[in-house]
Specification:
2 domains; alpha/beta; seven-stranded parallel sheet; about 15% strand
């Protein structure tokens, strides 16, 4: 791509973000940041019961409401969601938007073939929040490298987004057939993910851009002044019942050390998690979506415990760092790019409960060390302004220099 002259008048850019959900996890956090940074941008979503007026549903509002009611089976029979959203997605090719920015795409609301069609006739940027793009259908292959040659006999079956039926070989073939040939522009929030994409048979010819996620500016502005409080460990998990989020590692680590701190649980099924660590003083707060409430909770914590077995560049770790907590984490994916062990947090030696328990014990036994590491973490610059600027430059370049695939 030619070098850009950013001193030139900025293009008026009409951007449409496309995602499965409005509000759920890290991908949705990134989308909200981009919508604030580009007020003229819009969001289209495929799943949900109701949507704000400024959101473009790929499935009609009335049908969405009815599909979450007792009429769900009848609506699905009359107007199957997947068939409808796939058609609506393909129609975006003729929309007036200058660029489509795709986020979570797991082939659920549109087919891989439809993705390829869109990308061949419209400028597209795809932010990868996990590895699905270059695998046979799993988000995190972990130690499995079959996606580099051929999938099948998948060890990840049953872990979302895969079901119980093994179609991984077919998914890998479709991506190689439809997507590998396209000059796609993809964004990898971590260098770890960027290197995996570049080395994969599917993504080796794509344009891979590394733009780290940023700490939410609204979260930072909402942080209250820290006040004296009982020594507290905070665990935030989108869903404690989701094996991918690693609560089982954190639980076993906590049960391997003597209870000596207060535990705060935030997330779906947090009450269940709190009951699985007997002896600890626990408070379960459930799922919190309000940024201001999350900021207050972070300001009450000394340690942020993160135990996922596989992650990209989690926004929740950035929020804990911005709040001045000492992050104790498993050394997974892009987390090792966020945390410098012994300087801005503590990393376990490996992804296991005993190693995490060892790192956590060090933090609990030395409140002064926690304070020093948390203070250093606050100085790390994961600026939202820089994040927005990097995307602005990328949008500008992709729109200005894009050509249809058949040119």
């Amino acid at each position: 791509m030619p070098g850009s002259d950013y001193s030139a008048p900025e293009l008026v850019m009409r951007i449409l973000h496309v995602n499965n959900q409005i509000r759920l996890g890290g991908a949705e956090t990134v989308i909200r940041q981009l919508l604030r940074g580009f007020p003229s941008a819009k969001l289209a979503v495929a799943e949900g019961k109701s949507y704000p007026p400024d959101v473009l549903p790929l499935y009609p509002r009335v049908l969405s409401r009815l599909s979450h009611s007792r009429f769900q089976n009848q609506i699905e029979w009359i107007a199957p969601r997947r068939r409808w959203t796939d058609t609506a997605f393909r129609h975006l090719a003729s929309s007036s938007f200058d660029l489509l920015h795709l986020h979570n795409f797991h082939g659920q609301y549109a087919s891989i073939e439809s993705f390829a069609y869109i990308a061949s006739v419209k400028p597209v940027i795809w932010t990868l929040h996990a590895l699905w793009a270059v695998t046979g259908g799993c988000d995190h292959p972990r130690n499995c490298l079959r996606y580099l040659s051929e999938c099948g006999l998948c060890p990840q079956l049953g872990r979302w987004p895969l079901g119980k039926e093994d179609n991984t070989s077919d998914q890998l073939y479709q991506k190689l057939h439809y997507l590998a040939r396209l000059p796609l522009h993809v964004v990898a929030p971590s260098e770890w993910l960027a290197q995996i994409v570049k080395q994969s048979p599917i993504g080796r010819n794509w344009h891979v851009h590394h733009i780290p996620n940023a700490v939410n500016s609204r979260f930072v502005s909402a942080l209250p002044t820290r006040e004296p409080h009982p020594f507290t460990i905070l665990i935030v998990n989108r869903n404690f019942a989701d094996e991918q989020k690693g609560w089982y590692i954190a639980r076993d680590a906590l049960n391997n050390i003597t209870p000596s701190a207060r535990l705060l649980f935030v997330g779906q099924n947090s009450d269940i998690a709190a009951n699985e660590v007997p002896g600890w003083q626990c408070e379960s707060l459930g799922y919190l979506s309000c940024v201001e409430d999350l900021a207050k909770i972070h300001a009450r914590s000394d340690i942020f415990l993160f135990a996922s077995p596989a992650e990209n560049f989690p926004c929740v770790v950035l929020e804990a760092m911005a709040a001045g907590a000492c992050v104790v984490a498993t050394p997974t994916g892009g987390v090792v790019e966020q945390i410098t062990d012994g300087e801005t947090g503590l990393l376990a030696e490996d992804i296991s409960a005993p190693s995490l328990a060892k790192a956590l014990s060090i933090a609990i036994d030395s409140p002064q060390l926690c304070h020093r590491l948390g203070k250093a973490a606050r100085l790390i610059d994961f600026s939202e302004d820089r994040f927005i600027s990097q995307y602005r430059h990328l949008y500008h370049d992709v729109i200005q220099y894009w050509k249809p695939a058949n040119d």
